[in-house]
Design a protein that fits this description.
The complex is a heterodimer of chains A (677) and B (223). Chain A has 677 residues and is of the alpha+beta class. Chain A contains 18 helices and 27 strands. In chain A, strands 1, 2, 3, 4, 10 and 11 form a 6-stranded mixed β-sheet that branches. In chain B, helix 6 crosses helix 7 and helix 7 runs antiparallel to helix 8. Chain B has 2 domains: 67 residues, Orthogonal Bundle (Helix Hairpins), CATH 1.10.287.110; 110 residues. The chains are: A alpha+beta (677), B mainly alpha (223).
């Protein structure tokens, strides 16, 4: 059996970790970084006339994709997690704030597709590209094929969002053994050393997880190695992204008011500005004031000092939205804050001092002389917990032998009854796997079908809950009305995903059920989206690794070959340039050999030699985005009615030229070049 | 009942064989929550014992333990764990435990018992009739003044708060009486009488609980 890795598929960053002995360890990428930014860009399609008729898209994932986000924003996407398992009718808010370009032919009730350049992709496919990158990083690091994984999801993810995540894993060639809730994973990472000796009293732990795009809170009881979640709550659309957007709006408004420049129509300028406000946000976690200093089209500069007090006042409404779910979780757990023994902080946004103050207030911490847990890196702790769960599943480590996670379903399950009201069949915070049985009958003589609408949510009316699935119970033997007794069994599995089965009890006939997921892909659709048969082929792993290593080398070599054309090149010192050339020549010489380690070492060496160049290039891209687009911007203003560049403050563009987005079969997609930087 | 795998008689929980460790397959579908947790069918259960048994069985049955097993074993583990969790959820709550036990003993409880449309919640227990009438008048008064945007009369708010507290105490009493009747049933004497008293108590409990909820919610919006 190959290794089982743990993956944190995050809104902003993704990570892969595994259990090394008794310790969870995060696996770095080729660039040495543990975090793979959840950014995917579509590379320019090959224009080679000899290429096959269907375009073979290649994508770039992670740090290397960051640059493209500014240089070619129309081919890039970030924060795709916000779209997982959702339909076009429930993403209105996201479209106002994120530059998502939804393909023009997506209908309500259908799975979304996002336009990148000439093509379009489902959110699961985009996530699959990220997962495949993580899979490759793990294979590269471990030197063995990786086929099985545990993937984390926000605890408050609903059924459709979970299914979309599992589908993404399958498309990336991963057998997803378990979906684990992020806060629970974090608790596992923290509790590893202490919970198994049997002498500890039962402890109550609250996990506060504020990530890039989602917020979760979970209350757990730790009892002799059993991690039992008692209550969970959250908001799947609340996170650091919201803070970024607030700062961005303020900056855009000020730029327009003070300099008469409206950047809202320029996606590249917006991305550059977003980068600047994110840096300011990060700085404000350590400093009492942050500075923005940005060159504007026309040569003006937007200069702004943001004192922390102003910043905290600005973001306080966003942070305040996390308080309600915390109080609800405490109420559902039937406890008061004083009964919480420990609080664990997870997610990059918990670095913000104002968040820590709020958490302190909610759980009455300093009043009791307590501090929240922040010992583990808040960006990495979820992936580490996923690795612990992977080890529990593998059952091959003494460290995790006695651990067991008992999680809950975050949302109540119900069915639509007469008058559009919801009849609850399973309450939220039920330990999973959980099941519920309901009985149905017919209303008309001879009726052979019964339609059932399954919902998830806490509201009284069906229209206010999340539609999970609609299905027909077919093949009911004709009988007088009210006589058939149809037993429908709902089963939520350990991943939080629903299964349904039904039986007509008088005749014993198993009713056929067609569960049509409201925003899901069918198995057949998922099959066609599996990224590359390449990964599944039973070819020699070592050979594949060698091919990949050579491709990595190719990518970076061709980037270096083009380097002197870039303005940033002239900013390097003579020494820096000759170091680049030396590393380049060494890699070129090594590449054709078959020593995998040597090729990788040479690739890493060249990557490091060009690091400063890459940074300079990034800066150039940012200022070019701000400065160099005035002509184009003027051009766009003329056609403002017909062409709207997608940007964070207007409905995302439902694409102008539909004929440029042919339906793509991605079954044979081969992607290369993600792994360089 | 014998183990589907080793054929030895089952002991304790009917979900997993104590002798050979096999998780039981289809046969497990017909077992009740008490059998799932391997405890006696009675009202008075020790919460600590129940939890320990739940945890012990979870370690044996949970799908996490069967990731590399056959598809059939995985399916058995999933079903058995779901049943175990359902059982734990129901039996750990004393009131739900009463409702469940009465139901599997063949008694009609709650809405089934009251029939559709005239659900028990709507009909106050006779001895509370007068008090409930009074309470509803005050609730109505409070809601009216809320509607008009006026501040509610302090005396009405005080009366309602007092009533809510009184009814909450009543819930407490009902729960204590349920425990007493449960113990009688457990002892085996005059079970029918104990059961019918418990059904009455459950109706009363449901009614009072809804009443308290209404009052508390109205008071909250008035605050």
């Amino acid at each position: 059996m190959g290794p089982i890795v743990g993956i944190d598929l995050g809104t902003t960053n993704s990570l892969v970790a595994y259990m090394q002995g008794n310790e969870p360890v995060v696996i770095p990428g080729v660039d040495g970084s543990n975090l793979v930014p959840s950014i995917v860009t579509l590379d320019p399609l090959s224009t080679d006339a000899t290429a096959e008729a269907t375009p073979r898209p290649t994508v770039t994932v992670g740090n290397s994709a960051r640059r493209a986000l500014i240089a070619t924003p129309e081919r890039a996407i970030y924060s795709v997690k916000r779209l997982m398992g959702r339909g076009i009718e429930d993403i209105g808010e996201e479209l106002k704030l994120f530059p998502f370009r939804i393909a023009p032919d997506v209908q309500p009730g259908e799975v979304l597709r996002i336009t990148l350049g000439e093509m379009s992709f489902t959110p699961s496919e985009i996530s699959a590209y990220i997962l495949r990158q993580l899979k490759r990083n793990a294979e590269r690091f471990l030197g063995t094929p990786v086929k099985q994984a545990v993937i984390t999801v926000p605890a408050y993810f609903n059924d459709a969002q979970r299914q979309a995540t599992r589908d993404a894993g399958r498309m990336a060639g991963l057998d997803v053994l378990r979906l684990v809730n992020e806060p629970t994973a974090a608790a596992l990472a923290y509790g590893l050393d202490r919970a198994t000796d049997g002498s500890e009293p039962v402890r109550t732990v609250a996990v506060y997880d504020l990530g890039g795009g989602t917020f979760d809170v979970s209350i757990l009881r730790l009892n002799d190695g059993i991690f039992e979640v008692v209550a969970t709550n959250g908001d799947t659309h609340l996170g650091g992204d919201d803070i970024d957007n607030l700062l961005l709006v303020v900056a855009l408004d000020e730029i327009r008011a003070e300099h008469g420049v409206d950047l809202r129509q320029q996606p590249d300028a917006i991305q550059a500005l977003r980068k600047a406000v994110i840096e300011a946000k990060i700085a404000l976690s350590a400093e009492s004031v942050a500075k923005l200093d940005i060159e504007l089209p026309g040569g003006d500069r937007y200069r702004r000092e943001i004192p922390r007090a102003v910043y905290e006042q600005l973001i306080s409404p966003v942070l305040e939205r996390t308080a309600g779910p915390c109080r609800q979780a405490l109420a559902d757990a039937g406890i008061v804050p004083e009964q919480v023994d420990e609080v664990v902080l997870v997610g990059g946004s918990t670095r913000i001092p104002a968040v820590r103050t709020l958490v302190d207030e909610i759980f009455h911490l300093s009043a009791r002389g307590r501090k929240p847990h922040t010992e583990l890196n808040p960006d990495e702790v979820v992936a580490m917990g996923a690795a612990v769960q992977a080890s529990i599943l593998a059952g091959n480590s003494a460290a995790t032998d006695q651990l067991l996670l008992l999680d809950v379903t975050p949302l109540s399950l119900g069915i639509e009854a007469l008058g559009g009201v919801v009849a609850r069949v399973l309450q939220r915070n039920s330990t999973i796997p959980a099941s519920a049985t309901e009985h149905f009958t017919t209303g008309v003589d001879g009726q052979t079908n019964v339609a059932i609408h399954v919902l998830q949510g806490e509201r009284e009316l069906a229209r206010d809950c999340r539609s999970l699935a609609r299905f027909d119970l077919k093949g009911i033997p004709p009988m007088p009305a009210g006589l058939p007794r149809i037993e429908v069994k709902f089963l939520i599995d350990a991943n939080g995903i629903l299964q349904v089965s039904a039986r007509e009890q008088r005749s014993g006939i198993e009713a056929q059920i067609e569960v049509k997921p409201t925003y899901g892909l069918t198995d057949e659709q998922v099959e066609t989206m599996i990224l590359d048969s390449f990964d599944h082929a039973e070819e020699d792993f070592a050979e594949r690794q060698l091919i990949e290593a050579r491709l990595e080398a190719d990518t970076i070599l061709s980037a270096v070959a083009k380097a002197p054309e870039n303005a940033a090149w002239s900013l390097l010192t003579e020494n820096e340039r000759s170091a680049v050339f030396a590393a380049r020549d060494h890699l070129a010489a090594t590449q054709s050999g078959s020593d995998l380690k040597a090729i990788r070492a040479a690739t890493t060496a060249l990557d490091q030699a060009t690091r400063r160049f890459a940074e300079l290039m990034m800066d150039q891209a940012v200022s070019a985005a701000m400065r160099g687009k005035t002509m184009q911007a003027a051009d766009r203003t003329l056609n403002a009615d017909e062409i709207h560049a997608p940007h964070p403050f207007a409905p995302a563009q439902i694409n102008q030229q539909p004929d440029q987005q042919p339906e793509q079969q991605l079954a044979t997609t081969s992607a290369t070049g993600e792994s360089h930087d | 009942m014998n183990c589907t795998s080793c054929q030895k008689p089952m002991q304790g929980s009917l979900l997993v064989c104590a002798a050979c460790g096999a998780v039981q397959g289809d046969g497990a579908a017909a077992i009740d929550y008490f059998q799932a947790l391997g405890v006696e069918r009675k009202f008075g259960l020790n919460a600590g014992d129940l939890e320990r048994e739940f945890h012990r069985l979870s370690r044996r049955l949970h799908p996490d333990r069967f990731v590399r097993a056959t598809a059939e074993e995985q399916q058995n583990s999933l079903r058995a764990t779901a049943l175990l969790n359902d059982a734990w959820r129901t039996l750990r709550d004393p009131v739900e435990r009463v409702e469940y036990l009465l139901k599997i003993e063949g008694h009609a409880v709650g809405e089934e018992h009251a029939g559709k449309g005239k659900s028990a919640e709507r009909q106050p227990p006779p001895d509370l009739l007068e008090e409930v009438f009074e309470l509803n008048m005050q609730l109505e008064e409070l809601r009216m003044s809320q509607k008009m945007g006026e501040t509610a009369e302090a005396s009405v708010v005080a009366d309602l708060t007092a009533a809510a507290t009184r009814f909450e105490a009543m819930l407490q009493t009902v729960d204590e009486r349920l425990a007493v009747e449960g113990a009688k049933w457990d002892s085996g004497e005059s079970r029918a009488q104990a059961a019918s008293r418990m059904i009455e108590l459950l109706d009363r409990r449901r009614y009072v609980r809804n009443l308290v909820r209404d009052v508390r919610e109205t008071l909250k919006t008035a605050a």
